TrEMBL record:
InterPro entries: Kinase-like_dom_sf (IPR011009), NEK_Ser/Thr_kinase_NIMA (IPR051131), Prot_kinase_dom (IPR000719), Tyr_kinase_AS (IPR008266)
Catalysed conversion reaction: L-threonyl-[protein] + ATP = O-phospho-L-threonyl-[protein] + ADP + H(+); L-seryl-[protein] + ATP = O-phospho-L-seryl-[protein] + ADP + H(+)
SUPFAM superfamilies hit by this protein: Protein kinase-like (PK-like)
Keyword Nucleotide-binding on entry: yes
Occurrences of domain Protein kinase (ranges): 21-283
Lineage: superkingdom: Eukaryota
GO molecular function terms listed in the Swiss-Prot or TrEMBL record: ATP binding; protein serine/threonine kinase activity
EC number: 2.7.11.1
Keyword entries, A-Z: ATP-binding, Kinase, Nucleotide-binding, Serine/threonine-protein kinase, Transferase
Ranges annotated as spanning the membrane: none
Descriptive protein name: non-specific serine/threonine protein kinase
Source organism of the structure: Emiliania huxleyi (strain CCMP1516)
Enzyme class name: transferase
Pfam families: Pkinase
């Protein structure tokens, strides 16, 4: 593939650098493109090439600007955007490869064997995840699609937040038209305010962290239903399975963060804040390991 480099992003891939990579396998497929694993012919370096379909796109400049925002992010627990190029068909993003899989993979593995996570591991992951999202909010970026499936792990087992949904609005609040797209993406991670059509703010990202925390404690999702409409009713009513949380093999002062008084409070204004979460002794003492 021959690339024309974009001159307004922090780094680009020129022709010879692109040809230095060989495609190893497809990692994922989406409505607007796909992600593949590339390996350098020179030194064996593995990177993710996220190919976003731009053929027929009328607002390429807007997409380019939003990519630039993500490319500017610098945090040890966020997947690093490395370089960007495009041809007539694709906008290609080269990303850091998180070779440890995802938190969802680990949840499936532990659930299958009914083996709880070690407390130190849970505290480390929650501290790293919360730190990454707090950083995003500090630079006025909302993730808007946090789930166990797009929280990845490095080879060393550290959190790497990814899949930012680059075509989505960033900022303090999202438009109502954009909210519907997010809600359709991962319904069981929707917050009550999102379901009710209210603007998406930082508290909705915090809600998603609460869901992931609950899963790490119990190896199950707090809201289980046979239909999306029933699921949304449970979420809005705050019908969390507290019995599973109480039975989790962790101290109650830790598991309580995933209840309806803290991270899963139905009222966004009363929901636990990340600064409060990160101040908890169990998370504060978690080794950063970076």
């Amino acid at each position: 593939m021959t690339f024309r480099t974009t001159d307004n992003l922090f780094a680009t891939v020129d022709d010879h650098e692109a040809s230095d990579f060989v495609e190893r396998r497809v990692l994922g497929q989406g409505a607007f493109g796909h992600a593949v694993l590339w390996e350098s012919r020179r030194n064996g370096l593995l990177v993710v090439a996220k190919k976003l379909l731009i053929a027929g796109t009328t607002d390429f400049r807007k997409l380019e600007n939003e990519v630039a925002i993500c490319a500017s992010l610098r945090h040890p627990n966020i997947v690093q955007y490395l370089r960007t190029s495009h041809n007539d068909t694709y906008l290609v993003l080269m990303l850091e490869y998180a070779s440890g899989g995802s938190v969802a993979d680990q949840l499936d593995k532990h659930a299958a064997s009914t083996t709880p996570f070690e407390q130190g591991r849970v505290c480390l992951w929650l501290a790293q995840l919360s730190s990454a999202v707090a950083y995003l909010h500090s630079v006025k970026v909302l993730h808007r699609d946090l789930s166990a499936s797009n929280v990845f792990l490095s080879a060393a087992g550290d959190i790497k937040v990814g899949d930012f949904g680059l075509s989505k609005t960033t900022g303090v609040n999202a438009s109502r038209s954009a909210l519907a797209t997010t809600m359709c993406g991962t319904p069981n991670y929707c917050s009550p305010e999102l379901i009710n059509g209210e603007p998406y703010g930082a508290a909705s990202d915090v809600w998603a962290i609460g869901l992931i925390a609950y899963q790490l404690f119990t190896l199950r999702h707090p809201f289980e239903a046979s239909s999306v409409s029933q699921l949304f009713r449970l979420i809005c009513a705050g019908k969390v399975d507290t019995a599973a949380l109480a039975a989790a093999p962790f101290p109650p002062e830790l598991t309580c963060i995933a209840d309806t008084r803290h991270l899963l409070h139905p009222n966004a204004a009363l929901r636990m804040r990340l600064v409060e979460l990160l101040a908890l002794p169990a998370l504060r003492s978690a080794s950063p390991r970076q």
